[in-house]
Amino acid sequence: MAAPKDSNPSPTVVIIGAGLTGLLTAQALKKHGFQVFIYDSEPHLNFRPRDWTILLHWALPIFSSLLPSSILSQFDKAICNPHLNFDEWAETLPMYNGETGDMLFKSAVPGSRRITRRGLREVLSEGLDIVWGRKVTRLDTETEPEKVKVTLEGEEGVEEEEMWADYVLGTDGAGSKVREILFADQENGEEKAKVKRSGFMIGTCIVDYQDEEMVQKVLEKHPVFAMAMSRGAVGGFGVQYTNEIAPGNIQHTVFWSKIWKGCFSTTPDIPRKGPEAVRYLKQSWQGLSPDFQVVVDSTPEDDTHTKAFVDEMGTWIAQPFGNRDGRVTLAGDAGHPMLILRGQGFQHAVTDVHNYVQALLAIRDSGADRKEVFAAYDKDMVERGSKAALQALEEAELAMDATNVEKMLMVRKGHGRSV
User: Fold this and answer.
1) Which residues form the FAD-binding domain (predicted)?
2) What pTM does this model have?
């Protein structure tokens, strides 16, 4: 698996983290003839029990351009409801007053598609050689100035692995180990690199109601996803998965989620998953209009019909770091984890991937200076990511009170690119 230092004139890229950003980067680089090696600390692709949905909107054209046709042709498999007629209403994101049931505003997201993280990972992993169960521990750029020696450890009893790369990209999520390594030589570097508490929590229930009336109540609000503001919380109701049992007979698995201010340090007894989490979320989200409240209150409190998760949301305001003379950098949540308000996180991750691929192509094909190219990449990623993360925090604060609705970016600028 490990590539010798000088075995191939085509640049070798090691990607740490097989999330959406890492897999998308790997497919894009592979399309352009780069040698790509992917390592992930988890034991297999679907190790995490939790799944969630992501709206691909302004970055979808960029996303599509990055992929080989064989992978892009499978994209529909990741869409929450690929059977839908995507008309103007389907490509709109409405926000309701959750207490009255009235629509507050709607945001046009033309051409958008809502996908599941798990579904898109399965599509993007096709044809890639991913080494699971490996954690990066060191990135050595001193031994060989024109290479990076990557050291990875596995489970107990698994021999430590070393390999040489021309470039390393950290796409290992909000708690990025690569980011930690890059900040290690700064004063208070360990603290600087840590993901920070945002002050917001999120609870999600993925529900198989086995009750068509309940499913229709969700679909009536919107066939993809609708948001709802209430006092001290904002949430959403939408379609998670669909299954075509027979032609024209579509079975829907739906979800609802709630975001509120809080953290586990002050409320350690909040259950994090399972039936206890369902009960907590139902009990804590009352006072909704009947059409929303019945969806919440009718959620089954068992593991067979409902998968429930409660998490504390983290963020990190991107700041400059040393990129080892352009050999090591970050992308996606490793570089700018942000709250989900306005759905900007993955759009910026896709932008990172595009810029990263273009940077490597400029170096390989046009002889551009590596240090200059990646200084520009990092500057853009840090400035863009930090602004977007701050905007998401501000949007979350405003979303806690429906009287602030006119101040929200969703109202003033919709879901389009704002950075």
Assistant:
1) 323-385
2) 0.96
